[in-house]
Specification:
With about 130 residues, this protein is mainly alpha-helical. The chain has one domain. It contains five helices and no strands. The mean pLDDT is about 90.
């Protein structure tokens, strides 16, 4: 059961750093963004923190059943979107992604991290007892 819950720990750790970055440094995510955009980015950071609370609920359960498997699938699905964002940033060379101006490691790091987290969530949602 511990192995099945490990993606939830991984997600919570990774997304805590991301959430804090969105909340306390939204202009690092989108340089030169408007005050309204900063508010949306801060809201997104709050959403990421709420996903960590979902992880905490799963981690505090004594079992890993169908509900936890569905939550793993849902959180895995979420990680497809940062993967997409990282790929677009890599392929299109998005302005603001110059070396030295990359938040939390830049798009290559984001791509690798989110692919790993997606894969482990997918695995435990399909094969929880393995």
């Amino acid at each position: 059961m511990l192995a099945a819950k490990s993606p939830f720990v991984l997600h919570a750790v990774i997304e805590t750093f991301a959430a804090l970055s969105f909340i306390f440094g939204p202009e690092k995510q989108i340089p030169g963004c408007s005050p309204a955009t900063k508010l949306v980015l801060k809201q997104y950071g709050g959403l990421l923190l709420s996903s960590n609370l979902v992880c905490l609920v799963v981690l505090l359960q004594d079992r890993f059943g169908s509900t936890e498997r569905m939550l793993a699938a849902a959180l895995g699905f979420y990680h497809l979107w940062p993967i997409h964002r990282a790929l677009v940033r890599i392929v299109q060379r998005v302005p603001g992604d110059a070396p030295g101006n990359q938040t939390l490691g830049g798009p290559l790091v984001h791509l690798g991290v989110h692919v790993v987290v997606f894969a482990v969530f997918l695995y435990v949602s399909l094969f929880p007892g393995q």
